[in-house]
Amino acid sequence: MVRVDADKLPAPVGADYSASDAPYMLGPLDEVTVSVAGMDELSQKLVQVDASGRFSVPLAGTLEAAGKTPNQVATMIRDRLRQQYIRDPQVAVNLVRTVSQTVTIEGEVKKPGIYPVLGRMSLLRAIAAAEGVTEFAKLQDVVILRRVGGKDYAALYNLRAIRRAQYDDPDVYSGDVVMVDESRGRRMFRNFLQLAPLLSAPLIVALQKA
Question: What is the dihedral of CA 185, 190, 192, 193, to 10 degrees?
């Protein structure tokens, strides 16, 4: 374990899009609604993206949806309908349910579980999605685990310090694991905390494989 000289966890790279800068990207098994104004026969109440990242729409055929925003998919459908001599089709694609971009929240929160990441999500918002911390939670012991570029990182945060604006509320990304007051999370930082038990900024480390 090596301490990282930074005040923020590195953001996901490559295929892991940045939720703070980009809209939601569709993925396998997500559910959307497709509607074409004035054409009920082309509108589907609910469509699920299949495991390969595709779904079908009448007259538009099969579309590659994974990795595209709902607006981008709507544009694809619109272009294909124009090829079928439908003049100026008005298409809307709306996300209904996501299973492809999620964050795991565990430990001393009221509802531990897996939650969707829609647009920008911060640590405080993630914990709020789990209905907040329990009365037993130690607010100084909140850990985010993240994998970036093949490397594993962990960061220790103090929720009370964030709420007091002592440092920024960090962004949470798809694939992150948030651990609230879990002993295994705290153990990762034991040696560092023995040297500096009072932290005025997040403690970030790169995890080394055994």
Answer: 100
